[in-house]
Design a protein that fits this description.
The protein is mainly alpha-helical and about 325 residues long. Helices cover about 70% and strands about 0% of the residues.
């Protein structure tokens, strides 16, 4: 400090403080390849994480789909070589009364099972949306049928609808009706199968509707109540329009499930389940595909049926997109 004072008195600048050791400006060794490795990690890690899904999808989804399409253009018998037939398998289906019968059965069973199922699901969801005592138990209870296996549920209902000693015919006899042939008649057998489907999926759809209803703002209900709307009017004018996209979703999913219906009619028919009963009265497209492929051995025709089902599902998806677009335009207007 004395030196600084003397320098200030003499008019000379004070000496500079001792310089601290300077940091190295040059990058450490190997910093270049480490930075490149870091950049590659940022770019390639997401692809590495999703690669297992795409490999699994390619092996078990895309390849079977393309191979089935290739088989549908050939005549293939079990244990034989493939022979090119072009669109002959599809032409054979167009001329087959069994195919049109299976398509009609798939449609009727789908309608009879889907419409009551979704209506009852809406009603159950509306009830569960209120603050009921023990509503947690009821929410679990309505999902119990969905958790039951298809085989167990179908076997139980097959006993209930048995023509000779079933509980359904017994109850009908108590009220004065004649026994119904639930297995050999067309409409009774389809109603019985639709009952199984409805019993299994009503609770599942009810919980989907319940989740959508709980997302509806309470302000809408309060405003409707102030206007004098009853609970029924609130349900029709507030709840239904608010959950319309969810209703459309369940309709599409239920329709797809009805198109692929296999387990319930297969087990319900017993030894005649593959053919859909003695007169093919409840044979669906899935049962016909199974019969063509693994009973008669016509893998080419079975593959053609599978692709027809795929085209039907794509058509259903296109209709769903059309309705969704129209709904968005209405909401935008």
């Amino acid at each position: 400090m004395a030196t600084s004072l003397r320098a200030a008195a003499d008019g000379t600048p004070p000496p500079a403080p001792p310089s601290s050791p300077t940091r190295r400006s040059t990058p450490p060794p190997h910093s270049g390849w480490r930075s490149r490795l870091y950049r590659w990690d940022l770019r390639l890690s997401p692809y590495a994480f999703v690669t297992p899904f795409f490999l699994t999808f390619a092996a078990f989804g895309l390849f079977p789909l393309l191979y089935t399409g290739w088989l549908s253009l050939h005549r293939v018998e079990l244990g034989g070589d493939a022979q090119w037939k072009g669109l002959d398998n599809y032409a054979t289906l167009a001329d087959s009364e069994f195919f049109w019968n299976a398509l009609a059965n798939t449609f009727t069973i789908g309608v009879v099972s889907t419409v009551p199922q979704l209506l009852m699901a809406l009603g159950l969801a509306h009830l569960l949306n209120y603050k009921l005592r023990g509503r947690g138990f009821f929410r679990v209870a309505v999902l119990a049928p969905y958790a039951t296996s298809i085989a167990a549920a179908t076997l139980v209902f097959a006993q209930l609808f048995n023509t000779d000693y079933g509980l359904i015919n017994t109850v009908l006899g108590w009220v004065g009706f004649d026994p119904v042939d639930w297995e050999s008649s067309k409409w009774p057998s389809q109603i019985a199968i639709s009952t199984i489907v409805t019993w299994r999926w009503t609770g599942y759809n009810a919980l989907i509707y319940l989740a959508a209803m709980q997302a509806v703002p309470q302000d809408l209900y309060e405003a409707a109540a102030l206007d004098g709307a009853s609970r029924w009017r609130q349900f029709l004018s507030v709840t239904i329009p608010s959950i319309r996209p969810t209703i459309l979703f369940t309709i599409i999913v239920s329709t797809i499930g009805a198109t692929q219906l296999f387990g319930e009619p297969m087990i319900f028919g017993g030894s005649l389940g593959v053919s859909g009963g003695s007169g093919n009265q409840f044979q669906t497209l899935s049962l016909l595909m199974y019969e063509k492929g693994w009973v008669t051995g016509a893998l080419g025709q079975a593959s053609a049926i599978a692709w027809v089902m795929l085209l039907l599902l794509l058509l259903i998806g296109a209709v769903r997109m059309l309705f969704a677009r129209v709904n968005r335009k209405k909401l935008g207007a």
